[in-house]
Amino acid sequence: MARWFDCGRKWVAAWLACGVLLAVTAASAQPSIVLILSDDEDVVSHRVMSQTKALVADQGAVLDNFFVTNAFCCPSRTTIMRGQYGHNHRIEGNELPAGGFAKFQALNLGTNTVATWLHSAGYRTAFLGKLLNGYEPGRDAPLPGWDEWYAVGGRFRNFDYTLNENGTVVAYGDAPEDHLTDVLARKAADVIRRTPAGQPLFVYVAPYDPHSPATPAPRYADLYQDVPPDISPSFDEADVSDKPSYVAQLAHLAEWQKEAITRHNRERLRALRAVDDLVATVVEALDASGRLDDTYIVYTSDNGFHMGQHRLFMGKTTAYDEDIRVPFAIRGPGIRAGQHLRQMVLNNDLAPTFSAIAGVTPPRYVDGRSFLELFAHPDRPWRRSFLIERRQMETHELVGYAVLDALRTARHTYVEYGTGERELYDLAADPYQTKSIANTADPALVEAMASRLAELKNCASDACRLLEDLPVEPEPTPVAEHGTPVKG
């Protein structure tokens, strides 16, 4: 048996580690995949997801350093479906001309996604929830590659909304059972139960929660009445003079802003409880249908959310960790329970990872990589840096700041703005990014970060992965005991 699965055989994809391949094949030639994607969920808020922790994280692995490469809805969701940086798929905002569903359609991106790849490989595919900003259930047809389709529009309503249900528009009201997250949970469970046992599934469930207005399911409306917001060292930051001008000019948060943050934080936590129930409903359906042990369940979010950090009110799209780092938990065949991985994994990596699970070779345009091998070899070398992008609408009131490019390594965050201003943070000494050292750091470090950023801004496919794997920070100059540099 060991010879049959020899990882040296030519038919084995180079990016699948042998240990994971053995575990996957032992369970099924094509395991099922469920992706549950929350909307605007930050890492701190994830603490209320107790069922998700028990049913997914504790049964599998947590990726402690999972990042999105553009902390904005449409760009991130397109990256998830296609495995590309935003500068390659060209969806760089939520509305025209930068992005949105209209641009997604104009670029014909929906004809070549992870759904079409898996559908062609025999998977039954189902999409449920929020696709992209600008999608309209009554106007827009289901995308190619999806066998079942239950898509909502972009008005962020958990009540009084419509779904495009396999081409038919269905209206929902304001009864408790109409709460969108609960409806999606029931429909996802129904898809799982109706799919023939021998057919692998790819189910993508994307509720609105906890996106504003974060209307909770009625059963959770009274929770968290006394919960304060997260008061980290960057909250209402004491000194922002090191920041770019658009932040440096901000006054301390006003009392009304602090009150609004406190109120909305509670609303977000309440909204997440229905998402937690959704996870439990999906797991129960997989278990009842005999699929649970043969299914990869992934839980994550499209971007994070800042609430008062760095004196910024509420929002996303920055290169700060509050916006780019998101929760990530996964369980499935070959993943040892209780694992925590430290490698920097990206939303770029989801589509190629799902391809690896299905035994499908993704298109050459993909920038990301499968992270399946990390579960068998958690100490293996991995990417050393990645690109963060923001390309908002040209009409943004802070035009120069609407554009940013940033480089993230395990040790540093380096940011360049359209205005020419820069930030650099030493994350080991300053994990909350409260003191930029762009003007005081070793010039060799700044130059190295700027040079790699310039390369990644224009990378594609194999070149992205090659650049990400190269060292960035210069090695420290050896110093003799008397304090003078050692000449080589």
Summarize the structure.
By secondary structure, the protein is of the alpha/beta class. 28% of the residues lie in helices and 17% in strands. It folds into two domains: 30-383, Alkaline Phosphatase, subunit A, CATH 3.40.720; 387-469, Arylsulfatase, C-terminal domain (2-Layer Sandwich), CATH 3.30.1120.10.
Care to describe what's here?
The chain is α/β, with parallel strands linked by helices. The chain folds into two domains: 30-383, Alkaline Phosphatase, subunit A (3-Layer(aba) Sandwich); 387-469, Arylsulfatase, C-terminal domain (2-Layer Sandwich). It is built from 14 helices and 18 strands. Strands 7-6-5-4-8-1-9-12-2-13 form a ten-stranded mixed sheet, sandwiched between helices. It has a four-stranded antiparallel sheet with strand order 15-16-17-18. Strands 3-14 form a two-stranded parallel ribbon. A hairpin with a 2-residue loop joins strand 16 and strand 17. Helix 2 crosses helix 9. It is globular. It starts with 17 loop residues before the first helix and ends in a 19-residue tail after the last helix.
